[in-house]
Amino acid sequence: AGLALGLQEVSAEEQARRQTVRQGQSLLDSLEGLRHSLLTGRVPLEVLSTLEARLKQQRSLTADPRLIALMDDIELRAAVELAKLERARK
């Protein structure tokens, strides 16, 4: 029974790790979209919205202070770009 429980724990840990990797990849994809938009000089609202949603989702799943600080920096950059978009629309 102890071996089976140990295997279940490893399996659950592995599943959690894989989920975190998938979510991290999704966040990186959003950042790549933002980078591309910044390079072309046009940041679509949907790029910022997608990034914001992915940041919120990832933030709720992590306790790593370095990752949280990085997400704070990304969120600030997205907020700046959103403010620029809003100002340009006026």
Descriptive notes:
The N and C termini lie far apart (66 Å). This protein has 90 residues and is mainly alpha-helical. Helix 1 (2-40) packs antiparallel against helix 2 and helix 2 (45-59) packs antiparallel against helix 3 (65-89). The radius of gyration is 18 Å and the shape is elongated. The protein contains three helices and no strands. The mean pLDDT is 77.
How much helix, percentage-wise, in residues? over 70%
Number of helices: 3
Tell me the span between the first and last alpha carbons.
Answer: 66 Å
Helix-strand topology string: HHH
Overall body shape: elongated
Low-confidence runs: none
Taking all Cα atoms into account, the compactness measure Rg is 18 Å
Oligomer: single chain
Mean pLDDT: 77
Please give the number of β-strands.
Answer: 0
Q: Biggest β-sheet: count, sense, barrel?
A: none
% residues in beta strands: under 5%
- Structural class, by secondary structure, is mainly alpha
Please name the defining characteristics of this protein.
mainly alpha; 90 residues; 88% helix
Topology:
Elements: H1 2-40, H2 45-59, H3 65-89
Helix pairs in contact: 1-2, 2-3
Summed up:
This protein has 90 residues and is mainly α. It has three helices and no strands. The chain starts with a helix and ends with a helix.
